[in-house]
Amino acid sequence: MEVVNAIGRRKAAIARVFVSEGTGKIVINKRELDNYFPSTILQYVVQQPLNKLGVAEKYDIKINLNGGGYKGQAEAARLGIARALVKINPEDKSALRAEGFMTRDPRVVERKKPGQPKARKRFQFSKR
Questions:
Q1: Rounded CA separation 88/94 (Å)
Q2: DSSP characters for 20-60?
Q3: How remote is the C-alpha of 55 from its chain's centroid?
Q4: Would you say the C-alpha torsion 60, 72, 76, 63 has a positive or negative sign?
C-alpha cells in the first residue's frame, strides 16, 4: 500500500495527514502523539476514527500540524485521519459519518467589528 494523504481543518488549525501501513505509530510534527498532546483526552480525540474502525494497530500516521490551538489541532487531525481512512476503504465512510468524524466543523471566531471592543460586546452606553 502506498502513502495516502488527506487534509483536516478546524478553526485556524490545518492538519496534513499521511497514512501508510505499519504498527500504529502516530507522529505529529516529528514528535510522538503522547509527547505532542500530553492530555489523554486530546490523544483520544485524535485516535477516535482508528478506534471506531478497530484499525489502530494497522497504520502508521504522520501528521503536519500548524495554526490554531491544541483543541483545534486535535480535531483537525481527527478529520484528516478520517478522510484518509475513507480514501483507503470507502465502505468505512458511513460508520465514520454516523460518529460525526467526516464533517468539517464550520464554527470559527467571529470577526471584531469597528467601534466596539469585541465581536458582539459594546462599549458602555452613556445617556448623558
A1: 14
A2: EESSS-EEETTEEHHHH--SHHHHHHHHHHHHHHT-TTTEE
A3: 18
A4: negative
Q: Specify the pLDDT at position 78.
A: 95
Q: What pLDDT is stored for residue 128 in this prediction?
A: 87
In the chain, domain spans: 4-99
CA dist 1 and 15 (Å) reads: 22
Residue with cell 475513507: 86
Residue 106 has pLDDT above 90, yes or no: yes
Q: Which grid cell sits at 17?
A: 495527514
Among 99, 25, 91, smallest CA distance to 63 is for 25
- Mean pLDDT computed over every residue of the chain: 93
CATH number of the 4-99 domain: 3.30.230.10
Which residues are CB-contacts of 53 (< 8 A; sequence separation ≥ 6)?
85, 92, 95, 96
**pLDDT tops 80 at residue 1:** no
